[in-house]
Amino acid sequence: MQYSFGIIKPDAMQKKHYGKILDDIACAGYKLIGLKLFHLTEEKAKNFYAKHENKPFFDELIQYMCLSPVLCFVIQKENAINDFRALVGNTDPKLAEKNTLRHKYGQDVSANAIHASDSEASFDREWRFFFTENELYFPNDLQ
Ligand code: CDP
Ligand code: MG
Q: pTM score, two decimals?
C-alpha cells in the first residue's frame, strides 16, 4: 500500500467542484486517510512551492494558491503516487486526457484544480505542511 497527498486548489473550491472531485477519487479506489480545509498564507505557499521559486509563474502561483481555503487530503491505494498523478492528468487541463480530473475540473495551466505529489519524497515532505500524524486515520476492517 502506498499513500499520496493532494490539494483541491482555489479555482475548484470556488466553482464548488470539491464534492465531485472527492467522489471521483473514491470511485477510483482510493481510501481517504486525512482531509482538511486550510487557507494558505503567502509564506507557507512559497515554502510549499519552493522548488519553483525561479520560474516565471511563481508569483502568480503563490497569489492564486492564497485566494481561498483549499481542501488538503491524504489517500491510500496500491501504487497511489503514480496512479493519482495519472488520474489528475497533465499540468495544462487543455492537454490533459479526457477522463482526468484536470481535464474535467481545471481552467488553465495555472488554475488547474488539483495538486498531486509527484514522488514518495514529495509525499513525505508535503503532507506534513498540513497534517500531524494523529490527524490521519488509517484503514481498519470497517473502511
Ligand atoms: O502540478 P504539476 O506537478 O503538474 O506542475 P508543476 O510543473 O510542478 O507546477 C506546479 C504548479 O504551478 C502547477 O500545478 C500550476 O498550478 C502552476 N504552473 C503555472 O501556473 N504555470 C505553468 N506554466 C506551470 C505550472
Ligand atoms: Mg509538480
A: 0.97
